[in-house]
Amino acid sequence: MNPRSIVKKIIPKQLFKKIEPYGHLGEAVLAEIVHGFPARKLKIIGVTGTDGKTSTCSFIKQMLASNGYKTAMMTTISVDYGDGTGEHANPTRMTTVGAFPLVKQLTKVKQAGAEWLVLETTSHALAQHRTWGVPYHLAVMTNISHEHLDYHGTFKKYMVAKVMLFKQCSRNRKGLKTGVINADDPHSEDFAKAIKRNMFYGVKNGELQARNIELRPSGSSYSVTIGDEEYNIQCHLPGSFNIYNSLAAVAAGLAIGLDKQQIEQGIASLQAVEGRMTHIDEGQSFDVVVDYAHTPDSFEKLFSELRPLVKGHIISVFGSSGRRDESKRATQGEIAGKYSDIVIATEEDDRDCDGQEILEQIASGAIKSGKKKEKNLLLIHKREDAVAKAIKLAKAGDLVLFLGKGHEQSILANGPKAAELLHLPQDDTDKRRVIKRPYSEIEVVRKNLKRL
Q: Which of 27, 28, 351, 424 minimizes the number of CB atoms within 10 Å of its CB?
């Protein structure tokens, strides 16, 4: 058992929650001192928000790398140290790792000789001061919606944590002190007030507005007028949300000082992001997409956009994590039920929670939208079985959506003593309560499609 778990057992839950950030802060300060502040000479671009962070990071990194900038990247999906070996899978399941692992990664980036680092930065990491000492050169905000209230408690506290990235960036005397902000997000001004300079982007608002938008199943194109020039952007990631993600990268490129050709070519050079709107084709007569969408906001955007494009039925397969925000489960079920013809609720990461109870919470929302159990609402706990059932039900012209797991390579399932130890604070390393089993959504989907 790790020291943090022991402390959690000794100290009352509410008190631990109050003092925990200071423990992380102490670790961050110590880690930086021990390793000699490795990020001081790096130009770090921090990307935060509820949805779209990983894709936005990928756009920015690809834009810089394709133009000859030696660039590293750390995201939910992968880590690229900028050493020429490319992207490596992120095995931690953490977007922004703990203070000591983070500083060790920064040291590897520095030793590789990278000039830039694109760092996906979470509200947890910011609230816990795990990024103390990270000299953010530029801050990027994608959007803010309902998420992680299980940890933060209130939406206001969640917002305060996200804004901390912009404040940290503004304090970096050697940085750009600039924030790239989604002007269409109702919380944009909260971020704008936290930093010296701003660049606003959007579809409806902002100095950088996407116009002449053309959406295609394989991506999109749009134009942006900047000064006297019109930039023509080709985005190979489908969905209107990727217009926002790529537009954030355009703004970042301008802030950094890239020219028109560098930005256009850089955005167009990103072909795909694993587990993000990943189309899987094994010769079947229906469409299959694997995506990481796991919040109500991302569900609404995804379903509302895809529904008009599908001639047949939409079959959606998803779950909701244990030890995470319970209040979103019914909302996700309701949104999926509104747009899908068939909803299959399944496991995501139960951890030590009752998986059947999670499925029932999702089902309550789907029923509210008109779905009926055993007819067009199925509760299939084991995810592999849910995938097989969805593919078996699909007909020509249908779309099957597998949501929530995306790039992940495992499922956190109940351990042998999960139920009796549920009263203890979360600890995914306790094998009595949580067992990690190998699972790749993309591989399982492909395997089932090949059986056809």
A: 424
